[in-house]
Write a structure and sequence with these properties.
CATH architecture of one domain in chain B: 2-Layer Sandwich
Strand order of the largest sheet of chain A: 3-2-1-4-8
CATH topology of the largest domain in chain A: Nucleotidyltransferase, domain 5
Helix content of chain B: 55-70%
Number of domains of chain A: 3
Radius of gyration of chain B: 47 Å
Number of strands of chain A: 12
Order of helices and strands of chain B: HHHEEHEE
CATH class of the largest domain in chain A: Alpha Beta
Oligomer: heterodimer
Largest sheet of chain A: 5 strands, mixed
Number of strands of chain B: 4
Structural class of chain B: alpha+beta
Chain lengths: 293, 179
Amino acid sequence: MPRRTGIDISPTTITAVQIRLSKTGWSCVSGTHMARSSNESTLEPEEAERLESLLFRKGFAPAPCVINAPAEALTSSTMDLPPATSGAPIDKLARAEFARRNQIDASAFVLSYWGLPTSGPSHQVMAIACLVEPTDERISSLEAAGLHVAGVDDPARAMGRTLSRIPSAATVCVGARVEPWGSTIVVLHHGTVLYSRTPVGLALSQDPAEHGEFADRLAQEIEACVSFARHRSRSHAPAAVSILGQGARCPMLMDAMSRRFGEAIRQLVAPSGERLDPTLAPAIGLALLEDIA
Amino acid sequence: MTPENLLPSHRAERRRLNRCINAWSMGLCVLAVLVGGLALGANLTRARPPAMPAGLTHEVELGRSQLGLVELQIEQLERVRLARERSAAAPRWDRLLDIVARESAGKAQLRAVHVEPDQTAGGSWSVSIVGTAESLQSPATLAERLDATGLFSRVRHGIAPGGPVDGRFEFFLECAITP
């Protein structure tokens, strides 16, 4: 059975997960965390070697790795493109339009886009561009340490991939990754990422006294996202909310979320039904990337 | 929909190339193992010939027996041939003496018969006969009869010079027996 390793590098922690892929789905083999030696986006070679050593000690088998792109290398925006049936060179048009709109060199990024649900005849897409240079530096550090990087992805989209694999009857799914360095909210409609956002100043405080206020702000953000998704998809089906990251280990925050959203709160589970550590969700989503080189 | 992987294209290309090289190397290894296996299998098969059917074994045995008989017959025939050759090479002294005895009682009387191997031709014999006859015709007749026996390859006769003594001519015969 093939194995895949997902490595999520955040400003404070590196999370690694190894999954085993099978015909029936996937299962989590092992997962670990490593505190960062610096909160800089670039990964120093020493830190990469420390990570490789940790993975070896934790029993990670040699497998293709998928990492998250550095935050400063990612740019996303929505674009209107001609429909696929028009015969127009859509990929070229998308790349040119993205470069023009974001004022970046068309050859300096890797572009990925996917269609969004629209009611009219227009073909709207969500596009993510990943700048080659900062991504290349991170990959070089990891490969110098002996890890084989076969894929790079947006951490928000990876989180959405994890959420989309959780069986649910909800049409709209919202995932909130709450970390000490900030929060990311991902909105999915029928498993497709509609958008993601990182609210300014919404970071989990170390002081529990501030968690009540933080929970209120987070709940407002999530409700706004659910409203947007319902408006966008013209659906009023029940939504599911998942709290991921370090925030899911904070009892006060989880209590507040349960009171606010009740039955909509959904736990992170594997296809086998096994409950998973919510802090592993982004790394699991990276490991689940199918399109690896 | 574009690919989801945001890996820089030059790295993706390098990984694809590495995979191709690995697959090619693996293919070569598998081919080498196959060729080696086939060669080994061929050697093992050659070392152990398949068992012959029972009917065929019987036929082979029969053929070998017949071959043995034929060889024995050839050997016997060869012996007969050699015996005949030996007997043909030796002068038939019995018949020669019989003819000479009959002629001695007639008009030609033989005085001496001398037989000796021919020194000039190996395996040949020379018979010299000396006698007297009442007429010149008798030695010629005797020579013809000897020649007609087929025992001699050459028969030559002659009359001794000096004329008749007591009314009888002296003659001689020289015969050659060649195997």
